[in-house]
Q: What sequence folds into this?
């Protein structure tokens, strides 16, 4: 029997700013009514009623936070069966090794210091900390936690909240470092999370968050990273404001390559740490790019629409000539691109994933496009591979060619092209 989640549970419209509470939210983009990106019916299941939620982006006219206008219940977005595993992405593994080395140097972490990771998934972030001798603890509600447990990482299999923060503090003591990678924009009640994180931190403790970066999103037209899991789209300016309201201060920042452009932000209790020059430099860059005053978003809608039309036109020419197209990669972002541009199984036959992926034998959300084992690409040799993980297009194309794919590559964004 298929699991059915037709009840929108605790989902709700967001009509006041998630940071400052203002009702002055300016609409920037509406990507349609789309399904949650990780809710994927099994192949062969009859098409049934599906959940779809509005996906609109707003910018707060008071505090500048960019955010979506609808909160989907976390139990719908992050069920036990959540299929995502961090460890399958090389860039993430390398990034977390870099984080462990950098934070050891910046914070002077010693062996035995407690490091707590929120949204720890399969333990990929905590692994290099554990190797460095730190005492590690992961918090993760989905089945990915079982993978981490098998690696010998201590896990709390639950959703992070204030009550859990109390429990962790009582049981494990204060943390020298709390990390939250690609989850700090995902949990509702941002001030509740920051206050709970603060509660777990030692007096000289540090909170490091890594989030997809608004400047990268706008610069390279990554509208496909907009989906319900991402409630907020952070600029450094917004993060500073959020932390300040909770007595924390950002003291160091670094742009990192994960997910096509993210930002690693170090925060500590106000006055604890010297502020690194990277903070001022990054704020200056946001001002130059029109992020601080919001002008960067003025042309965003038009650029997104033009790129959708250009992709349609390119695919239309290929289909006119009888070309066969397979998608490659089914990351969460592929669901936004496919649903917003209206791709279906008449345009792309299927989407390929590596054989360890939990997404194989399921349909891309909202469609009848099957996700299948990548070996089919090499057996069938379609004319084109549409790279849905286009933010690593060069690397991906090299690997596919090396493994024997002889067709052409389509890169859908920022400007649709055939490589
Ligand atoms: N941190 C990993 C990384 O950077 O690759 C995983 C990121 S994944 C996009 C988000 C993770 O956060 C998922 O594993 C999800 O189950 C988990 N998550 C979602 N809500 C959470 C919450 N309230 N508390 C703890 N983890 C949560």
A:
């Amino acid at each position: 029997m298929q699991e059915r989640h037709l009840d929108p549970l605790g989902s709700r419209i967001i009509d006041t700013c998630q940071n400052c509470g203002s009702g002055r939210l300016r609409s920037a983009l509406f990507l349609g009514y789309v399904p949650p990106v990780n809710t994927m019916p099994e192949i062969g299941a009859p098409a049934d009623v599906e959940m779809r939620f509005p996906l609109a982006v707003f910018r707060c006219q008071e505090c500048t936070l960019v955010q979506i206008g609808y909160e989907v219940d976390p139990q719908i977005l992050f069920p036990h069966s959540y299929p995502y595993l961090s460890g399958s992405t090389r860039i993430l593994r390398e990034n977390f090794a870099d984080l462990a080395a950098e934070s050891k140097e910046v914070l002077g972490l010693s062996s035995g210091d407690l490091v707590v990771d929120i949204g720890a998934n399969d333990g990929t972030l905590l692994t290099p900390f554990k190797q460095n001798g730190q005492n590690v603890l992961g918090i993760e509600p989905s089945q990915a936690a079982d993978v981490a447990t098998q690696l010998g990482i201590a896990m709390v299999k639950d959703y992070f909240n204030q009550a859990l923060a109390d429990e962790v503090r009582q049981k494990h003591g204060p943390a020298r470092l709390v990390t939250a990678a690609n989850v700090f924009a995902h949990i509702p009640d941002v001030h509740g999370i920051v206050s709970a994180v603060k509660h777990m931190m030692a007096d000289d403790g540090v909170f490091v968050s890594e989030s997809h970066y608004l400047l990268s999103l706008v610069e390279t037209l990554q509208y496909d990273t907009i989906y319900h899991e991402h409630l907020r789209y952070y600029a450094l300016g917004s993060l500073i404001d959020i932390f300040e309201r909770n007595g924390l201060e950002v003291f160091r920042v670094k742009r990192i390559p994960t997910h096509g452009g993210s930002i690693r932000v170090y925060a500590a209790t106000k006055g604890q740490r010297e502020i690194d020059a990277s903070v001022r430099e990054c704020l200056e860059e946001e001002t130059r790019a029109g992020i601080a005053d919001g002008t960067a978003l003025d042309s965003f809608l038009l650029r997104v629409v033009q790129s959708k039309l250009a992709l349609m036109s390119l695919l239309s020419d290929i289909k006119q000539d009888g070309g066969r197209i397979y998608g490659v990669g089914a990351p969460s972002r592929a669901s936004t691109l496919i649903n917003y541009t209206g791709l279906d199984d008449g345009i792309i036959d299927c989407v390929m994933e590596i054989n360890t992926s939990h997404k194989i034998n399921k349909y891309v959300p909202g469609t009848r496009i099957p996700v299948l084992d990548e070996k089919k690409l090499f057996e069938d040799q379609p004319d084109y591979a549409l790279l849905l993980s286009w933010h690593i297009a060069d690397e991906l194309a090299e690997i596919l060619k090396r493994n024997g794919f002889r067709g052409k590559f389509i890169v859908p964004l920022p400007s649709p092209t055939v490589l």
Residues 300-320 form the longest helix (21 residues). The CA atoms of residues 85 and 122 lie 6 Å apart. The domain at 318-418 is CATH 3.40.50.720 (Rossmann fold).
